[in-house]
């Protein structure tokens, strides 16, 4: 199975993560900092789908913390 594609973006209340893949379109994960979002993303994805999943970040830009 291919990794789930994840987009990281700046939101008004912190940082958000979502996926453009059909089954995951409604998945949204928010955190106050980009670093915290990246730290908590694996557990949030696992909680959302009920098992650990592989994922790929679609926008990995340095210096956005």
Radius of gyration: 11 Å
Q: Give the rounded overall mean pLDDT.
A: 80
Please state the overall shape, judged from the principal axes of the Cα atoms. Answer: globular
Derived from helix and strand composition plus strand pairing, the structural class reads alpha+beta
The proportion of residues in beta strands is 25-35%
Strand order of the largest sheet: 3-2-1-4
Note down, in words, how this protein is organized.
The protein is α+β, with helices and mostly antiparallel strands and 65 residues long. The protein has 1 helix and 4 strands. The chain has one helix at residues 34-49; strands at 4-11, 14-18, 28-31, 55-57. It has a 4-stranded mixed beta sheet, with helices on one face. The longest helix is centred in the middle third of the chain and has 16 residues, at 34-49. The chain is globular, with a radius of gyration of 11 Å. The chain starts with a strand and ends in an 8-residue tail after the last strand.
